[in-house]
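Dear colleagues,

As part of the handover before I leave the project, I'm documenting each prediction I ran so the next person doesn't have to rerun anything. This entry is a single chain, and its sequence is reproduced below.
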Amino acid sequence: MNINENIMKKAPLVHCLTNNVVKNFTANGLLAIGASPIMADNPMEVSEVAKKADAILINTGTLMDSDMEAMLTTGTVANNHHKPIVLDPVAVGSSSSRKQACLKFLNAINFTVIKGNAGEMAALVDEKVAMKGVDSVDPPVETTKLIAKKVATTYQTIAVITGEKDVISNGSETYVNEHGNEMLTRITGAGCLLGAIIGANLACEVDHFKATSQIIEFYTKAAERAIASSSIHGPGTFQVHFLDALHHID
């Protein structure tokens, strides 16, 4: 059974506490692969929603004080009910308050996967990588591997560092994915959607390292399939074809 068939068969409910910039794209991407999105972030209901969800995404892109309570509650409930949780620490190194918030999450919640670019992941373990806004300049792949292993061992998680070459590590195993296309960097929310889709596959595969590695290859191959279309004229048409490719690729 291929990844799309596996996800469509289970139709996992992914509870996304994600940033306001990407909610629509994230929901559409999850629907494209056969998962079900829910974007509940009201602290009064997140506990109930987290119990029903099959996987959780916590994304700090537009983090507000009110989000902290909802995210901490959701993570705690998910841990208590053994649900997979993905952390996307967006721009964690851009301010001290954002880093403190992410460290608070990491101290309180056991995350199945932590996903970010090299700069974000380096910030979590006090390493330095050149940054440009919220994006990082890709370091050599051997450096990326070391950062991924350090994040994985420090937080007892699976670390995913996205870039020209994606690196996935659980501290003992490390996988490098070389698929993808730079057009993914031209659309808002490509990385945020990836975090949600990782969550969907974690809910369908008991081997979480395998689930993470496979879904990243799936996701980046969908980008390759989309960019191959003769109808691509730029980021706008790419985004539409990318959603189609997520739906069709096996």
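The mean pLDDT is 93. The longest helix spans residues 208-227.

All the best with the project,
I.
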